[in-house]
Design a protein that fits this description.
The chain is an all-beta fold. It is about 0% helix and about 45% strand. It is built from 3 helices and 38 strands. The strands form 8 sheets. It has a 21-stranded mixed β-sheet that branches. The longest helix has 7 residues. It is globular, with a radius of gyration of 30 Å.
């Protein structure tokens, strides 16, 4: 469906710089910005569900803003996405900052800070990704797999034709939520020239980021401690529909009630006995970490003429807008329900029924995502004005965000309970998927970096950089909620080899001739290792129910292949993979396949012509990807796809371009 994006962002700032004395300078800044986003739909008939005769009854009738097709996911095929829009939001932000610089002898002192008031006014329709049983489409999302539904034909596309789905998710009326947060940061830095050879950079930063909260207390979280088995909801073992009990069991609201300003603005006010959900927890529903100190140290020492060593260490903290994607769209404020194993004609059944809520949840134990960076480098001035830099650069990251389905079934549960709806077997009975986010992820990066640069002089200039690195993390969404470390492996950002070469050279032909000389050639060569890929299957072979993402297969041999590689040819050995036994996870880890590398070769020939004092002309002949080196797409890694293991397409054809421009 077409979309129209309107983002009339507004920014403004006032800065005052005052020279207090010859060695003291003060800088004051006030800034204001507003990130407005309004995304509407273009057209109405081409993508409307009524245009295609789709008329199944909604789980939340009377709450739809547009007649839009649902999202449809069929295993082995591209997703037909009805889209999450319309959406409206704004983010006013106001910042006061002051920095002071004082030069005293061999010291240059800098200290200052900033205070920020930030807002997020969200009227966005969606707050959950396209996980099985979830949706980003208010008009619903169907998922069809090969197996799982008792009525399955054994082939996903045939199930779609029969209308036999594995999961269906739908969002109710969207909520309008006013989020707020404040932040304070202060720093001190001393650049100390100890002597002619040694310079120290010493610094300390303090950061406090207030957890985001809602003005009307209209956010909600799941708290396992608040879940009462005595109030558990009963679920029909065949349909998965709720038949009794408290559907909000375990869901908590902040504080002690809605403020007076919220009266008449929050649909959740109409929920019977809503006050039972207020938990006296902080307004953010997570613990404030109370700020953190970040030291920074840098050392530069001149070993000899033209040779310098540098080393440094620093801690850095990251601020996250976690509530916008986790808590402000939860029940009772915005309802999301999922149905497992049903019919497209009536996803909720022949009669109106209630189904378990899906919940986004956040661990109350919150710590700032933190990175510790460190480096050691040697710089050497070489002949021909070439500067060589050899460096080791590393980074360790902690408190990274990762997620899992807290309400996942143990492996093999569905096989041990044939015919029973997964929602009738979940640990937190009466709730559906609980998309639990926690800041417990880790990552580490190590690299050797080389660079050689020569500024343009005497007709030649070039730059060369090369990085050899490894990046490992454990932040991928875990298919086994009870063993999150299985996702530890190469990061999706890992690129072990990066090479970049650029040059410009003035041709010696007719160099001294004003009219015939002045020809120059330039080029850029870039190489990057391929993307790490995982072999995952959307089918729930392990029997853990919807909501935990794709699952791995078994690796039973070498994935290497020999011979030519290209479009239509195998990139890895598909026979090295086998389907795991029912009720188990495969042994393949994450990022075990490396996709094709990327390389690009560009060159240009150009000449400047001086016509008069005011007029000049330039002729350019450019070749993009002049060797016509193809860039292969990643291989198919869906083991149920007929093209599994093969490259299906390529890009990056050669392009030639001639140009003449007049400069005046």
């Amino acid at each position: 469906m077409g979309e129209v994006s309107d983002r009339p962002n507004q920014t403004g700032s006032l800065s005052v710089t005052t020279t207090v004395s010859p060695n003291r300078i003060n800088e004051f800044t006030f800034s204001a910005a507003n990130d407005k986003v309004k995304i509407s739909l273009a057209g109405d008939r081409p993508s409307s569900r009524s245009n295609y005769g789709i008329n199944y009854p909604y789980l939340f009738p009377g709450t739809k803003e547009n007649d839009r097709i649902p999202t449809v996911s069929v295993n082995g095929f591209s997703v037909l996405d009805g889209g999450p829009y319309p959406a409206i939001s704004s983010g006013p932000m106001y910042t006061l900052a002051n920095n002071f610089t004082w030069i005293s002898g061999r010291h240059t002192f800098k200290f200052g800070g900033n205070i920020e008031h930030a807002q997020q006014n969200n009227f966005d329709q969606i707050i959950i990704g396209n996980v099985p049983g979830g949706t980003n489409n208010q008009n619903g999302r169907f998922e069809f797999l090969d197996t799982g539904n008792p009525q399955s034909s054994g082939v996903a596309i045939a199930n779609a034709a029969l209308g036999v789905f594995n999961s269906y998710g739908e969002i109710g009326q969207r909520a309008y939520t006013l989020l707020r947060s404040h932040a304070f940061e202060g720093f001190f830095q001393d650049t100390w020239r100890v002597n002619q050879k040694l310079t120290l950079e010493l610094g300390l930063r303090y950061s406090w980021y207030q957890p985001w909260f809602a003005v009307w207390n209209d956010i909600a979280n799941f708290d396992a401690k608040a879940y009462d088995p005595a109030r558990r909801t009963t679920v029909n073992p065949v349909t998965g529909a709720i038949t009794g009990g408290d559907p909000y069991n375990g869901i908590v609201l902040p504080g002690t009630g809605f403020p007076e300003s919220a009266r008449g603005r929050i649909p959740a006010e109409l929920v019977p006995n809503i006050n039972r959900l207020f938990s006296k927890q902080p307004r953010s529903l997570i613990n404030d970490s109370q700020g953190a100190f970040a030291p920074r140290v840098g050392i530069a020492y001149r070993l000899a003429k033209g040779t310098v060593i540098r080393t440094g260490f620093g801690a850095f903290y990251h601020r996250t807008l976690f509530l916008s994607s986790s808590l402000f769209g939860n029940p009772p404020h915005q309802l999301t329900q999922g149905v497992t194993n049903g019919s497209v004609d009536a996803p909720g059944g022949a009669t109106r029924r209630e189904f378990p809520f899906q919940v986004r949840a956040l661990d109350r134990v919150y710590a700032y995502p933190t990175a510790y960076t460190y480096s050691f480098s040697l710089q050497r001035q070489l002949p021909l004005s070439v500067l060589l830099d050899l460096a080791y650069v590393g980074k360790n990251s902690i408190n990274l965000r990762r997620s899992r389905n807290l309400n996942q079934l143990a492996a093999g549960t569905l096989q041990r309970n044939p015919g029973i709806n997964p929602d009738a077997l979940r640990p937190f009975h009466g709730l559906g998927i609980i998309d639990w986010a926690e800041h417990t992820g880790r990552a580490n990066y190590h690299s050797f970096q080389l660079s050689a640069d020569r500024r343009f002089a005497n007709g030649l200039g070039f730059g060369l950089s090369y990085t050899w690195s490894k990046n490992i993390d454990n932040t991928a969404a875990a298919w086994d909620a009870y063993n999150m470390e299985i996702t530890r492996g190469l990061s999706s950002l890992d690129r072990p080899h990066l090479l970049n070469l650029n040059f410009i050279y003035e041709l010696p032909v007719f160099r001294s001739n004003r009219y015939l000389g002045g020809w120059q050639i330039s080029g850029v060569i870039f190489y990057r290792s391929g993307t790490p890929l995982s072999v995952l299957d959307a089918t729930d072979t392990a029997g853990v129910g919807p909501g935990s993402g794709a699952q791995p297969w078994n690796v039973t041999g070498s994935t290497a292949v020999s011979g030519d590689r290209g479009v239509g040819l195998p990139w890895f050995n598909r026979d090295a993979f086998s389907r795991p036994a029912a009720g188990t996870f495969g042994n393949a880890g994450v990022s075990i396949i490396r996709g094709p590398s990327f390389q690009n070769w560009d060159a240009a020939l150009f000449k400047n012509f001086r016509i008069t004092e005011r007029f000049n002309a330039q002729f350019r002949a450019e070749a993009f990807n002049f060797p016509n080196q193809p860039v292969l797409a990643n291989p198919v890694v869906d083991p149920r796809n007929g093209a599994f293991g093969r490259i299906q397409s390529k890009t990056n054809e050669r392009n030639l371009q001639l140009g003449l421009k007049l400069l005046f």
